[in-house]
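Hi, here's the filled form for the chain we discussed.

Project: internal
Contact: R.S.
Residues: 400
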Amino acid sequence: MTTPWLHIVGIGEDGLEGLTPATRAVIEAAEVIIGGDRHDSLPGTVRAERVDWPHPFDALIEVLQGYAGRRVVVLATGDPLWFSVGARIGRAIDPGDIVYHPQLSAFQLASARMGWSMADLETLTVHGRPVEQMIAFIQPDARLVILTTGEDTPERIARFLSERGFGRSRMTVFASMGGAEEQRFDGAAESWAHRVPAFNTLAVECIAAPEAALLPRVPGLADDLFEADDTMTRREVRAVTLAKLMPMRGALLWDIGAGCGSVSVEWMRGARYARAVGVEPRADRRAMAAANALALGVPGLRLIDGEAPAALAELDRPDAIFVGGGLSDAVFEACWAALKPLGRFVANAETAECEAVMLRLQSRVGGELCKVQVTRVEGSGPPSEWRAEAPVTQWSLVKR
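And the returned structure, exactly as it came back:
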């Protein structure tokens, strides 16, 4: 077993004083130290070569690999494995070459300041990521702790809350936690007016007004929450479809014929870090899908201009595939070949032609067939009538 040559050290606002003697000894014995501007003030006992974060940041792995075999320390903030650089490095360099030295994270410090149990809250980061992703977590009584960057970020989050009927939510911003210059700012989302330091941590206690928008993580969001045309997969059918697709943490969906993106958006909301690629040839529908993804808190939705099967060739292998229309033998063969083991394939059909393709494929490959039909009351008062919507034939199977 080789001796680890890379140490990733978390440091708080109290600097080296907050580290254990063993971790301080690692820093003092280092030959190379890589860190940011806020890590420049090291004592005279540290004689290592100092290297700033590379630009672009993606070059970090190559820089580290160039120092392999030397005593290297990477300085990070707080816990290096919690929304920090440590996980990124650990995916690219043999874990046997790395030792992690965690410090208290901003999440732990903020939770302690608020008196909140970490088991009962959501931890998020919008540091270097779209702020809109926090929208998916706005729910009654939810408690959120969010790493932010930029003095205006809490103000933007306050606006998201207020626009969705959560203006009374309590917000607290912490800066320089654990140091001599620690600051705290309190207020309500609807009246937030603080100017805060650029590097901060935000705690939010979501409080819903009676008119608040309810956006659960389970599938079946109301149709009127989406910008859409008449091709959208409707609420009840969408819920059944997502149940068969089974969103899972970090899993990738191909949404073929994405339309306004309603299935992709609900897939990404349904599990942490779930990803989706929407394949859609019409520019107006891709624009609607992008707007829906942003408004509903999943700005990472990727949209591709193209048609299956040609547009699928360069995509990463998916964990699930949804075909909302235009199923053909060629599309299915390309999808089935790309789908990972235990992957889920779901196709919906509203036309007789598409259903005929589906029935032929099901007789050859197997899977489950069902027909979904939704009947609604038309009108708001007597006399009222039940109106049946067009039935949808659904074929689903798991790749074993």
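Let me know if anything looks off before we file it.
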